[in-house]
Design brief:
The protein is α/β, with parallel strands linked by helices. The protein has helices at 9-17, 23-36, 48-63, 105-112, 160-167, 184-190, 224-234, 278-293, 309-324, 342-353, 356-369, 374-397, 423-427, 434-439, 468-482, and strands at residues 43-46, 74-78, 116-121, 173-178, 193-196, 216-221, 264-268, 297-301, 402-406, 443-450, 456-463.
């Protein structure tokens, strides 16, 4: 029998429908792969009993010809999504005993459509990180290695566990969240597809909040088609989330293979940053050529406020985080460190429960929201955010259908290479992705090549609001031209 873990989601779906194997066999194959790959530290909770029970139910439905869109498909879930009866820690010590009594809307939608939970994936603590090194459960290790070297590499963050799981064939698909690039950056680092949908396309209810005006759930997969299939199940209006948008969810899979002829694709000149590696420039040029060969028109465009995006983001996001994380006090759930009085208990619990990066961002956020600094920092950052959004709107109104940029300024780096020094160096990994979150737009990262060390590099497509279909069509063109990339198994 074919190694079931190497099948794409679409291939597994077709094979299950043809009864080439059972959902239980598919789940068991992935559960076994997870056991063999524990060196990656991609999963913080494995759910074999739940997976087999869900797979058995899927087999019954398949046998009755009542299969739903994701019937029997194993899915890994980022540990930021609350899962009823399954521990959810958000990668933090302060929540390491929390078992939610409720299900997030996104995961409930997946189970509604027949998907099978195989485990919860590791992530940066409260999604604060670009390398998956800030997790209380330890760093995730990428399944990739530099050619001729054995240095452990990061998978990107914050959704590094989900990205590593999909890239290592431990799951055909996984959920992630993206606040400043936390789906697209790890997708680029691990050679897979990652989509950040338009803000409001997927419900945020039941997802542990980082920055509420920026967070958005999205899928990881090994093909653009698989990402489209997953988004169709994840998306939808939710009355429990007032920021979710009441719009019909298209059949995204129908966009795969659709012509991109006469689409106008913008190349933002501001993304040509100083010191960009020549191989990133070459990859970007290749992507433009591939889209042009498919009939698209390539146009240079300007996003003049791009240079302010990263500093504005690192004011807005910590400010919202300091507010959201105020709820973790040791009183109602999670870690509690006793103190002489309530105030001391708060202080000790939060000091012990939060890691270094989370404490740093809480302090930054509290500072920029404080009296005397709110206008100087937070209010000004929000004004810059409006200008960034307007830059995109101006281009889309002029007839631009999407924009093509690099996803990251480099390939994956080594564990510990950037986490022990200046935090700004780590923050610069988000330089190409944060604008999308600040403007609330959809963005997809598609693997497009390898660097000189044999590591994957991604190209990013940025779309008009709620036009994920165009991103899937354009992403499929890039995917067909570049091919797919897989790490050599070492774990």
């Amino acid at each position: 029998m074919t190694d079931l873990t190497t099948l794409t989601l679409a291939e597994a779906r077709a094979a299950l429908a043809n009864k080439e194997f059972t959902a239980v066999e598919l789940a068991d194959a992935h559960l076994s792969a997870i056991e063999r790959a524990r060196a990656l530290n991609a999963f913080v909770v494995e759910t074999p009993d739940k997976a087999r029970a869900m797979a058995k139910a899927a087999d019954v439905r398949i046998g009755k010809r009542e299969a739903r869109p994701l019937e029997g498909i194993p899915i890994a879930v980022k540990d930021l999504f609350c899962t009823a009866g399954v521990a959810t820690s958000a990668g933090s010590h302060i929540l390491d005993r929390f078992v939610p009594p409720y299900e997030s809307t996104v995961t409930a939608n997946l189970w509604r459509d027949g998907a099978v939970l195989i485990g919860k994936t590791n992530n940066d603590e409260f999604a604060m990180g670009s390398s998956n090194e800030t997790s209380y459960h330890g760093p995730v290790i990428s399944p990739w290695r530099r050619r001729g070297a054995n240095i452990q590499l990061v998978p990107g963050g914050s959704s590094g566990g989900s990205a590593a799981a999909v890239a290592a064939c431990l799951a055909p698909g996984a959920t992630g969240t993206d606040t400043g690039g936390s789906i697209r950056q790890p997708a680029a680092f691990t050679g897979i597809v990652g989509l950040k949908p338009t803000y409001g396309r997927c419900s945020r209810w039941g997802i542990v909040a980082f920055a509420s005006s920026l967070d958005q759930a999205g899928p990881f997969a090994r093909s653009v088609r698989d990402a489209a299939i997953l988004l169709a199940s994840m998306a939808g209006e939710d009355p429990k989330d007032t920021t979710s948008v009441e719009r019909p969810v298209p059949d995204y899979e129908q966009a795969i293979g659709r012509s991109v002829r006469d689409m106008r694709i913008g190349i933002p000149k501001e993304y040509r940053v100083d010191g960009m590696p020549a191989e990133i420039e070459a990859l970007w040029a290749n992507g433009a050529d591939w889209l042009k060969a498919a009939g698209a028109e390539i146009v240079e465009v300007s996003l003049p406020h791009t240079k302010y995006a990263l500093p504005a983001y690192y004011i807005v996001a910590p400010a919202e985080a300091s507010s959201n994380l105020a709820r973790y006090d040791g009183v109602r759930y999670g870690l509690r460190v006793p103190g002489a009085d309530v105030t001391e208990m708060y202080e000790k619990t939060r000091a012990a429960g939060f890691g270094k990066e989370v404490r740093r961002r809480i302090m930054i956020g509290t500072y920029v929201l404080s009296a005397g600094y709110y206008d100087a920092y937070y209010l000004r950052a929000q004004k810059v955010r409006t200008l960034i959004k307007r830059d995109f709107e101006t281009n889309f109104e002029s007839g631009i259908h999407a924009m093509l940029t690099p996803t990251t300024p480099s390939a994956a780096f080594g564990v510990g290479e950037k986490s022990s020094g200046d935090p700004v160096e780590m923050y610069l990994n988000d330089v190409f992705t944060v604008t999308v979150n600040m403007a609330g737009l959809p963005g997809i990262s598609v693997p497009a090549g390898l660097d000189r060390n044999g590591l994957p590099l991604g190209l990013q497509l940025i779309g008009r609001p709620f036009d994920e279909e165009s991103l899937f069509s354009l992403g499929h063109v890039l995917e067909r031209a570049a091919g797919r990339f897989s790490p050599e198994r070492w774990w």
